[in-house]
Structure formats: structure tokens, C-alpha cells
Amino acid sequence: MAAHATPSGPPGSVPVFEHRRHGRDGGRVLVLNATYEPINVCSVRRAVILLLKHRAEMVEEGLSSLRSERASVARPAVIRLSNYVRLPRDAHRRKITRRAVFARDGWECQYCGCRSQLTVDHVIPRSKGGSSEWENIVASCAPCNRRKGDLLPRQANMHPRRPPVRPHSSVFIHVASPVIPPAWKQWLPEAA
Question: In the chain, at which residue ranges do the beta strands (DSSP E only) sit?
Fold first, then answer.
């Protein structure tokens, strides 16, 4: 029985396994506002459309290029919009999700620092009047969450390492792409 060879394609093109690895849209691209502020993550396909329509410019190129029968285009990694996009003042008031809480808290338990079995914990339990607001929810590993239970922080002698706060809007970029490509790092603010 012969081993299956992976077709390599024309010289300089992206190997077939790269297309499979990136999926249908070919990966993610960081979108910067005209002021170089990170505002979104989009697909490579959407980024190329914005570039071809001159609605954006390439800031960082990816490692490979995109090829068709007649053209070759650099794969975008970071693009900047040509026109300033006004964001609503309350853009940071997005829905609270587990992934957003984990991203805000650096994907680690706010009680012990471990990075496995993450869940969320209400610092002040709802049964004791705690609300489901950013300022009352932290990432917690399952063992710490069970140990704290329905107790107040002082009763359990368990206080979050960092006080929970409403996240900076860039946290949602970490939610859209938990693994941040090296080309994006200089454009994103440091984690709190």
C-alpha cells in the first residue's frame, strides 16, 4: 500500500494542507481604525476585499501569499481602514460571556492562578445580592469555585488577585482570536 502524497501546487503557492489548516476563510486579520486603534478581527477574504476596494491599506503581511490563476496578492495579517470608523461610546458594554471573562483575566483563575478547568465565579454570590456585572465576575478554576461556594470573599478568605473591572475593548480581539499572531502584538495594548 503506497503512502498518500500531499500535492504541493505551483512553486511559491500555499500548500494544500495550509488551506485545510486555515479553513474556509484562510485565517484571521486584525483590523485597525484609521487612527491605528485595534477595532476588530475579520477573515482574510474580507480583508482582501477591503484592500481591493481601497477601503483599507496593508500594515502587516502574512508569511505566504494568496494566489489565483492570474494574480498573486500578499496575505494580510493587519490592515488599517482608510476612513475613521466612529465606534459607539458603549462599545465596551458588550455581553458578558465566559470567553470574554477568561480573556480579560488572562485565561487564569483569579484565586489560585491555575489555567485549567476554568469556570466563572460571582465574587459576591447572587444569593447574597451580587450582580451579574463585569465588576462582580471573575475567572475561577472549578476547585476554587467549589471551595468558595456560596460564601462572601471574607468568609471564604478568598479574594481575587485583581479586582474585576469592565474590560478594555481590545479584550474582544482576544476572544475572537485567543492565540495572538506575532504580527498583531505591537498593535494591541498590554493586558491589564
Answer: 28-32, 38-43, 56-67, 72-81, 118-122, 137-141
Place 167 in a pLDDT band, splitting at 50, 70 and 90: confident
Buried b (16+ CB within 10 A) or exposed e, 133-161: ebebbbbbbeebbeebeeeeeeeeebebe
Average pLDDT over the chain reads: 84
What grid cell was written down for 6?
A: 500531499
Annotation: CATH topology of 98-156: DNA Binding (I), subunit A (1.10.30)
3-state DSSP helix/strand/coil % of the chain, to nearest 5? 25, 20, 50
How many residues belong to the chain?
192
Question: What are the residue boundaries of the structural domains of the chain, listed by start?
Answer: 16-87, 98-156
pTM greater than 0.85 (yes/no): no
| Cα four-point dihedral sign 98, 104, 107, 110 | negative
